[in-house]
């Protein structure tokens, strides 16, 4: 799949799914029932609505998240109920057309950055609840974000109508989604509300998800959303339902994996807020998705590696900060990583700093996520725990490593604790460091 294709899609994925603090609109006599409002807010959480429509430091749902792509900037819109700057003039029918069909109130087409092909599977009742909550539970914000500006031919929104003809959309579910049995509820959550396939399913040249490769893994602006099918080698077929529930609730499962980047945000602001019943339904459905082989993964990612059992031969000689000799990967690891992850890579006893062996990120055949974690760090609040790993990029407040140093330490970590030396280069790190979402 072309890089440009992946980058255009990232506008719906990059912030993962941030859920901000909402300020309620003052109550009115015609306010809807508390049950409908609560349901709408829960649907908004599961549906990741805030992910793209709140810029870092911005007001909830006021838009302004800018994603820079080779074809221009995609800037998310204000979807608060402000009548002039947001969606305050939208009727429920207008809202439904936008949400499930990608058609704005003025009749123009939305870009596929908005996952309406997934939201198209939502029930009428959930669409109503979501609309009700947006109109009555979200504070209006009188701000208009910059206009999206893409290069030709992407600037012609009419072309999205042609795209819709070839894209695969979910079929709307019927009935009350709260009464679905476990697997049907899990499918509804995975394919419609949480839209897992938006990140984890590869796409064809037309940007449409490859339905025959559902959840088989895909690259997304530096990060790699891995294969999460039931494959025991390329996917998560060795995970139990409880393992996956724990991961979705906390972002961490000792001896398996931990969430960072967009998935860390998704856990923090979406899946960690789901009910236990919904988490088990979602996990049960994902774990029965047909296994897809991965040409790069031939052994379970989480089974690579062991503790480093070498004597500590450090001399005790301090390294001068003005010493210009290039450190190798082992020295960079010792100086920047060993304090938390241990010289032997075992992490901390409480797993706050995870083990680097038996770790699906380090054991992956693709070093993408490890590179991005070193570049950008980890910052995740879930399960009552704030997990933080500092970034080591050129804006770091801890240690600013060069692209060559990051490449060197990544190769050391994967060679020592994971799937081997992937030959990561400084040029590769530099390229991935540029593939980050930006704000206006």
Description:
The strands form four sheets. A three-stranded antiparallel β-sheet has the order 1-2-3, covered by helices on one side. A two-stranded antiparallel sheet has the order 4-5. It contains 17 helices and nine strands. It is globular, with a radius of gyration of 22 Å. With 440 residues, the chain is mostly helical. The longest helix has 15 residues, at 403-417. The two termini are 28 Å apart. Helix 2 crosses helix 6 (124-137), helix 8 (182-193) crosses helix 12 and helix 13 crosses helix 16.
Structural class: mainly alpha
Order of helices and strands: HHHEEHHHEHHHEEHEEHHHHHEEHH
Rounded radius of gyration (Å):
22 Å
Characterize the overall form: globular
The strand line-up of the biggest sheet is: 1-2-3
Mean pLDDT: 86
For the biggest sheet, the summary is: 3 strands, antiparallel
The termini sit apart by 28 Å
Strand segment tally? 9
Low-confidence stretches: 1-29
Helicity level: 25-40%
In percent terms, what proportion of residues is strand?
5-15%
Count of separate DSSP helical elements? 17
Quaternary status: single chain
Topology readout:
Layout: H1 3-9, H2 34-46, H3 50-53, E1 66-69, E2 72-75, H4 92-101, H5 116-119, H6 124-137, E3 149-150, H7 159-166, H8 182-193, H9 197-200, E4 218-220, E5 223-225, H10 241-250, E6 252-253, E7 257-258, H11 261-269, H12 276-286, H13 329-336, H14 338-341, H15 368-376, E8 378-382, E9 385-389, H16 403-417, H17 426-433
Antiparallel strand pairs: 1-2, 2-3, 4-5, 6-7, 8-9
Helix pairs in contact: 2-6, 4-6, 8-12, 10-12, 13-16, 16-17
